[in-house]
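User: Okay, second chain of the day. Same drill as before: sequence in, structure tokens out.
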Amino acid sequence: MSKVAVFGSGSWGTAFSLVLADAGNDVMMWARREEVSAQINESHENADYLPGVVLPETVSATHDPEEALAAASIVVLAVPSQSLRSNLQQWAHHVAPDAVLMSLMKGVELGTAKRMSEVIDEVTGIGGGRVAVLSGPNLSAEIAARQPAASVIACTDESTAARLQARCHSPVFRPYTNTDVVGCELGGATKNVIALAVGMAIGLGFGDNATATVITRGLAETARLGVAMGADTYTFSGLAGLGDLVATCSSPLSRNRSFGEKLGGGMSVEEIAASTRQVAEGVASCESIRDLALRHGVEMPIVEHVAALIRGELSPHEMLISLISRAAKSERT
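Assistant: Same drill. Structure tokens below.
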């Protein structure tokens, strides 16, 4: 049995550890809080994030990053995207020389506007052929309940993607491979911002017409940015694009949609953030994705408006009315 290290003991890191165990791997999770790792080892449960979900015996946990990385041939990264760089700088020297790193994170770094695979490569220097990303319609609670799901593993090296595919394929979790890392990462990060806008529409009491409009136009602007950055337009009609967008915007289990609903209901960004341990990645990434759009000369009105709202420049109602009242144009632009 091969060892996989999973860094991050939140709901997604925990749920994916279960997937890996079901696929036949020996999994060791790294937990930021020592009490969480102790609980996982003693009761096989992460009650803070997935209460009631029993983890397999082949899942253990530690607070020591060196212990987690020892002899791990695959390292899965599931920490909040904005803390990846600082965390990885502390862990990188413990990574095995031939290990493959796979990102589950769906964000873009503030300031640098780098995708997570770029941050991983920059900090570790291991090269893109050993850095992969996993993205798709994967709501943690449903994955943890072993409901059927699929995802995409993207890596510039097809053999690396295929190797990871084999190690992640469980009876109920089906991974596909792709070489379009840029497209998969942009789809995963941008859908969180679109889900915030959808949530705000729901929180304001708007119906299906409004939410369908935001979802569809959100996909269009995501694809525009992706193509400008060299992504394959087909990726955005696949699991890492449309699939992830639909799940995140449609489900009340989605952190970003739920965050948006609370914004639409009148709560502030600070109030919502203080009320939960869960991280809504779109809140930080909206500014980074806006920066990417500006750098590549791509118009992304939904992302721009969400970023303005997060900065406190617009209310949810003003944001959605402003989007609708923009100058009319062809749907292809």
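The first strand starts at residue 3 and ends at 7.

User: Thanks, on to the next one.
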